[in-house]
Amino acid sequence: QRSQKRSNSTPENPRPKRTLSSRSPYALFSPNSFSPSVTPSQKYAARGSRGEVVASFGSVQGPSWSGRGGCGCTPKLFGSPEENLTKSYKFMFQKALDIREALSWRIEELGDALKSHHHLEDFASVLLPAQEPVTVLGQIGCDSNGKLNAKSVVLEGDRERSSGGQIPLDLSELKEYSLFPGQIVALEGTNSTGKRMVVSKLYEV
């Protein structure tokens, strides 16, 4: 048996990486072929050429700007005052209660649209056992941190009838369906045990 020699690679003596050959088609699409030759400064405070254009792609066909001057424009707010922002506002710093109120309002609004479009009766609670088929309203969710699949689909009921309770869904009786987390749907099915709903019909917006 022939002994194979392997090059030792340590942090002090790293093994050199293979470079792409000039004949390789991958060299034409490597980051080196598209990246501009710009040397960044070592420190942000010691950077040079501040405000200058160091790299550009494409060409601009002679842009021209013109104006009449003066300050005759005055911005006006449209809509009710409580819906407009009149002071500085931090993005994604909403209160949890405000977010919940907006989601609840959205579920109720789309629920009314589903009811009138599909001529549905009043919605039932997702938490109450039902031997007969009932129609419920809610939002599609996932019971795990992974991707949504047929075994991880749950329905978060509306606040008015279901108090926001969740129930797992059995979709085996549906011929076809397409769901995503956060989708507002109305479902018809049976919930004999109060712990899992077997869906027979799916109503979408």
UniProtKB/TrEMBL annotation:
<dbReference type="Pfam" id="PF22062">
    <property type="entry name" value="OB_DPOA2"/>
</dbReference>
<feature type="region of interest" description="Disordered">
    <location>
        <begin position="1"/>
        <end position="43"/>
    </location>
</feature>
<dbReference type="InterPro" id="IPR016722">
    <property type="entry name" value="DNA_pol_alpha_bsu"/>
</dbReference>
<dbReference type="GO" id="GO:0006270">
    <property type="term" value="P:DNA replication initiation"/>
</dbReference>
<feature type="compositionally biased region" description="Polar residues">
    <location>
        <begin position="1"/>
        <end position="12"/>
    </location>
</feature>
<feature type="domain" description="DNA polymerase alpha subunit B OB">
    <location>
        <begin position="100"/>
        <end position="204"/>
    </location>
</feature>
<dbReference type="InterPro" id="IPR054300">
    <property type="entry name" value="OB_DPOA2"/>
</dbReference>
<keyword id="KW-0539">Nucleus</keyword>
<protein>
    <submittedName>
        <fullName>DPOA2 polymerase</fullName>
    </submittedName>
</protein>
<dbReference type="GO" id="GO:0005658">
    <property type="term" value="C:alpha DNA polymerase:primase complex"/>
</dbReference>
<feature type="compositionally biased region" description="Polar residues">
    <location>
        <begin position="19"/>
        <end position="42"/>
    </location>
</feature>
